[in-house]
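Working notes for the structural subgroup meeting. M.R. asked for a predicted model of this chain before we commit to crystallization trials. I am recording the input and output together here so anyone reviewing the notebook later can reproduce the run.

Input as submitted:
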Amino acid sequence: MKLNLTSEERSIKLHYEKALENTVECRKAEPNFVGLSREAAYNLSLIYMVTGANRLAQTLYRQWLSI
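Returned structure, recorded in token form:
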């Protein structure tokens, strides 16, 4: 899905995506590692919701924000 973002918004989105990727890598070494993954997932989901990418936001909720 193509999101209509400014260059600053794209940069922020990439930052949050990288934080989640790093969490996945860290969990390989330490399974209980949390870091800032929940905050990054929540903030990224807000970007998705504002741009109309509701399904992407729901995917983040299920993967990162569910108990």
